[in-house]
Amino acid sequence: MRTTSRPRRAAVLATSALAASALLLTACSSSGTKSNSDGSSAASGEKVTLTVGDFGTFGYKEAGLYDEYMAAHPNIKIEANTTQDGQQYWDALTTHLASGSGLADIQAVEVGYIAQATGTLGDKFTDLGKVDGVNASAWLPWKSKQATTAKGSLIGLGTDIGPMAVCYRKDLFQQAGLPTDRAEVAKLWAGDWSKFVDAGKQYQAKAPSGTFFTDSASGLFNAALSAESTQYSDDSGKLVYKDSAGVKKAWDIAVSASQAKISAGLRQFQDPWNAAFANAKFATVVCPSWMTGIISKYSGDSGKGKWDIAAPPVASNWGGAFLTVPKAGKHQKEAAALAAWLTAPEQQAKVFTKVGNLPSTTAGLDLPAVQSAKLDFFGDTPTGQIFAAAAKGIKPAPIGEQDGTVKTIITDNGILDIEEHGTDPAKAWANVTKAVDDKVNG
Amino acid sequence: MATSIRAAAEDGSAPTTAPRGPADAGPERSAWRSRLYRLDLKASPYAYIAPFFLCFAAFGLFPLIWTGWLSLHRVDLLNPDVMDWRGVDNYTRLWDTDQFWTALRNTFTIGVISTVPQLLMALGLAHLLNYRMHGRGFLRVAILAPYATSIAAATLVFVQLFNPDYGMINWLLSMIGIDRTDWYADTWPSQIAVSTIVTWRWTGYNALIYLAAMQAVPKDLYEAASLDGATRWQQFTKVTIPSIRPTILFTIIVSTIGATQLFGEPMLFGGGVGVSGGSAHQFQTLSLYMYELGWPSRQLGRASAVAWTMLLILLLVGAVQMLIARRNRTKLGG
């Protein structure tokens, strides 16, 4: 009995496994051919699941936009997939783009990598400029230009921009004998980021024990560099970071901050950094508008009402992202429509009031909802006015394909190394150039 | 049909006319049969294991050779179809890269400080579990639990424990008067932290392998030893260890391979700087360097060169271990 039943069971198992895999194969291939024929597989009324891949906090879920869109489009179901670390997100995305699989219907791209997306990867994305209802001139001119390929196709719709300010803790400033009024605070460092370091020395002299003036020298580096007209690459996209006056200046400011011990030496967006918000370990953080969402998320109730926002030494932009629709997606038409809706002025305004990502469309910046916006967490601070005003002063610098890589190496293996190990800055810089040569020159 | 033919042939008739005489048909058939039998005896095992080797050729050997071919080219991850011939440049460039040597050194040090305590502890644990005691079955399953835990989950817990500011390890150390240790940033502490995760995961696994080997040691050896007045420790060193020597060698080889390919633990332990193994590459292993070159930097050719270098190092280490094992065996006269 036993001997006969065993092979039979095995045979049943084998056949069912075969049948299942055959089913799977045919299912895959049939949907594949369907999507290849016209770039969209959805007949009218067919249920379509759109996936959205992004990183950090885009705020669509928080602002209830997915639910709103699904309610208005009963045939569409949206699934969001968020990676916390932007670098990890991008590494995975490039791999998926190369293999043409594992991609979401909508993929967000950070501004630091947009040149790679419009360059080497340009033909892997759909041209969103040809989508109904999309007009490239709705965005700030430099924002749309960043997402346009050499052939003139618009592959990314701007989500937000990152006009910069400085967020500071009033309670810590008071304890260290510094002014707390935002206009007074802004005067401490107006005009130059090196004055920000000087203010830090002033703070550190009378600082509450265990606290630092600012979170990380890398954050300061990004802030100072963003204000420069020459960054990592020149107009032609060639890497010039070694001789760039902007990089040199920002590096020196970051090094001086680290050597004056006014920085907590944390790596931004990591767990210890997140935890330091709740523990009030630092008094300032360079604050692009999207950072306000992060501050309120990690400071929690204990930090509510204690943070305020002051104007930066120099106006500049840090960050911001784009939504793209990869060609490998199965539902490009529906995805493009969703991306266009998510980045329209009204939706951008809703995201701003919820998580602080500032609109990248001109109409969105002027909406009363944005202009009069106050974030609950920051009390009566007129966040909308502060950031919209900062947005006007932005002078964008050219971005090259390798900017993101170089930035990561400078901040994570250069400045962080100085902060963590007290490495000699000259040696740290030599390490940076060596590492960039190793990683960039294939 | 067959029977009628055979019958016809056996009917006799002229042996001279038939090309093969019926007289020697019998012996020849049996010779053919025995040859078939011998063929079956010799070839069947190969046929039975062939599926594995076919799979290995497709999914093991081909990628191996393909990686070797890639390592002689410049290949961009995003355009893997375009390959520029480089020759051995990728290898000579490794030789000149500081980061490669740092990674090689880290792989070695992390390998030693994780493998050695791991195997020693496993031996001790196995010896203890080999005694008769209550709840033996439960304990044997329990020590395998870390092995069944996913690397990601385990590492996340250890990251919390080793947190320099809020972690439990520093808190415990401060109780005995040891100052704050930066388990993330400093070279030795970070490497010890990574090794701890590896040791924690694999000790139980190795202990079970040792235990299985110990159970096969004949009981009368121990009886004889105790009659001779050997203590438990002497029994362990003089009976147990020599008896399970091949098993120990096996675990050393497997652990060496594991240590050389160490990837997940340091990657996850480092958080956002995990790929580069910390801000100064203080715990970057060869696998991590390979990943950093291949994925974030998109240089598949150079990453392949690291992969092949790792293979060569493994073969070298394996050869050295074999030599030592053989010398030990001849010394023992076995």
Report what the structure shows.
The complex is a heterodimer of chains A (about 450) and B (about 325). By secondary structure, chain A is of the alpha/beta class. In chain A, strands 1, 2, 3, 4, 5, 6, 7, 8 and 9 form a 9-stranded mixed beta sheet that branches. In chain A, strand 1, helix 2 and strand 2 form a beta-alpha-beta unit. In chain A, helix 9 packs antiparallel against helix 10. Chain B is mainly α and about 325 residues long. Chain B is about 70% helix and about 5% strand. Chain B is built from 15 helices and 2 strands. In chain B, helix 14 runs antiparallel to helix 15. Chain B is flat. The N terminus of chain B is likely disordered. The interface between A and B is medium-sized, with 33 and 36 residues. Chain A: InterPro entries: Bact_solute-bd_prot1, SBP.
Sheet of most strands of chain A = 9 strands, mixed
The helix fraction of chain A, in percent, is 40-55%
Mean pLDDT across residues of chain B: 88
How many strands of chain A? 9
SSE layout and pairing:
The complex is a heterodimer of chains A (442) and B (334).
Chain A: H1 2-38, E1 48-55, H2 65-72, E2 76-83, H3 86-99, E3 106-110, H4 114-118, H5 141-146, E4 156-169, H6 170-175, H7 182-189, H8 193-205, E5 212-214, H9 217-226, H10 245-259, H11 271-278, E6 282-288, H12 291-299, E7 307-310, E8 317-324, H13 332-342, H14 345-355, E9 358-359, H15 362-366, H16 368-371, H17 383-392, H18 403-421, H19 425-440
Parallel strand pairs in A: 1-2, 1-3, 5-6
Antiparallel strand pairs in A: 3-8, 4-6, 4-7, 4-8, 4-9
Helix pairs in contact in A: 9-10, 9-18, 18-19
Chain B: H1 2-10, H2 25-70, E1 73-76, E2 79-85, H3 89-96, H4 98-129, H5 136-142, H6 145-148, H7 151-161, H8 168-175, H9 187-215, H10 219-227, H11 232-243, H12 245-260, H13 264-269, H14 286-294, H15 300-332
Helix pairs in contact in B: 2-15, 4-9, 4-12, 12-15, 14-15
